[in-house]
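tokens incoming
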């Protein structure tokens, strides 16, 4: 009988020890989970955002006449970018200035929707009219409608289309020449 009680007591102690061990593991797991939700991951996200770069930036023509449409296509790096801004300018030179005309200005991310989603090609079509209007659309949605008179001092006008992607602290920029006739 004493033998049986001793075995039962040993089993009870083992159960209690196992229960304490499980509680410790659960506490460690919860602490680790809370740590992973803290600002530590924000630092990682910021480091990943520094990998932002333009992979492709193309215009479907080098010159445009009134009544024609300019196709613009670009995509960003495959890096795990969580949020960035994309701006396309028309400029008289190959650098961005306050006189430039914005034709695209969107906040982009992996879930930004069809206008500006990271890790896939983004397209816009811009109609140039004889009234010097430059109307850009994406999937029939209006992006911008700009008068280009401030850009033109003469026609034909050699200009630039500039794409800039910025993640807050880092930017990547490319330009392409375009002649307005």
């Amino acid at each position: 009988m004493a033998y049986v009680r001793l075995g039962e007591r040993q089993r009870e102690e083992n159960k209690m020890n196992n229960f304490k061990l499980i509680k410790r593991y659960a506490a460690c797991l919860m602490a680790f989970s809370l740590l992973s939700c803290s600002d530590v991951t924000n630092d990682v996200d910021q480091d990943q955002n520094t990998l932002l770069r333009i992979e492709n930036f193309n215009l479907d023509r080098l010159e445009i006449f009134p009544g024609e449409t300019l196709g613009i296509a670009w995509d960003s790096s495959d890096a795990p970018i969580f949020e960035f801004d994309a701006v396309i300018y028309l400029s008289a030179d190959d650098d961005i200035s306050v006189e430039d005309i914005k034709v695209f200005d969107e906040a982009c991310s992996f879930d930004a929707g069809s206008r500006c989603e990271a890790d896939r090609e983004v397209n816009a079509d811009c109609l140039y009219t004889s009234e010097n209007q430059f109307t850009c659309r994406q999937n029939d949605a209006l992006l911008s409608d700009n008068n280009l008179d401030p850009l033109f001092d003469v026609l034909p006008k050699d200009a630039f289309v500039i794409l800039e992607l910025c993640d807050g602290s880092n930017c990547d920029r490319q330009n392409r020449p375009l002649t307005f006739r």
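note: The CA atoms of residues 91 and 99 lie 8 Å apart.
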